[in-house]
DUF5931 domain-containing protein
Amino acid sequence: MSVEQPLWRALMAYRVLTMGYAIVVFAAAYERYERPWIGIAYYVVLAGWTLATLPQVSGARRCTKRFLTADLTIAVVGILLSPVAGHERAVTGGSTLPSIWTAGAVLAWAIKGGWRWAASASLLIGVANVVQRGSFSRSTLHNVLLVCIASIAIGYVVEVARASERTLARALEIEAATRERERLARDIHDSVLQVLAMVQRRGTALGGEAAELGRMAGEQEIALRTLVAAGLTPRPGPPRTRRSARSSGPSTTPRRGRRLGRAARPAPLLAGHAGSDVTFSAPGTPVPLPPAAARELAAAVGAALDNVRRHAGDGAHAWILVEDEPDAVIVTVRDDGPGIPDGRLVQAEGEGRLGVAQSIRGRLRDIGGTAELISVPGQGTEVEMNVPKRTK
């Protein structure tokens, strides 16, 4: 819904109420008019016009400039007919035939066209008031300024609201496009880039024509990483499902400052990573973690284990530990490899290697969680993933 739509609804109600008010004021002073039939004829036109044109003031699309011109004309004609109807107070400071209904005509210009349109319409109403009274009195000035200031203020507010709405729509469009690019980048990193890297390693090891194939795969990997890394922000897209399998027994991995909690829904998804070089540990009862968050968490764990296999060496061992906190599920991936040298993560991200930035931290950020990486050269690496139980 447009931010200005409530103003159009309020204007519809204002026009109907002020039409009724003008008729009541005329009826109360009916005997004072020398030519009341002029007022009656005008109110018949005013009532019919107000009720028939309610759809025109229901939104900006239907409120055309032609309608606004006709609407303002009826207000001006009513003002000029007031002394003709023979009520002397219309000239000496009393209410005109359209009374405060004229403000509704000016407000329609303000909502449709902004403060400049409002200023033009209110100026025309002011001139009509001066003409029908024949002089420029203090009360006339007061009424004209009141309508002018109110309509210009509303017109300005409408212009600001429209600009804000356009800015918000553009920001949402950019965010949607960015999230889609990052989703594709993450999927490419988890599939195509890893295959190219594997082809390069195996081709180099086999030699001959396979080595040439490996070299070409390495060049394509570098080019694709550069393309993927260009313009990305650390906000991933929708979750991607990983495989599920059975859990293994408890782990003996030490963990200071944490208590073992209850089993989380990610446990079946994470258990598939268990093997001779990966020990998986999780409590035995489920935790209320949303399935989408569990799948995203499992994908981040898989990315962390890929890094262990790729960088920690063939003899490295890894541990996966699932813990339950009152407001969050914590999964820790720890290895006994050589650790990560200082500055290596920043360098890798600059080279387009998004394993930590996108596949781990990015995934967790998308569901409202965090990923903390602790590594000491020669003492292994630990990745702690914290996911709130009430995710985004």
About this structure: Confidence is low (pLDDT under 50) at residues 231-264.
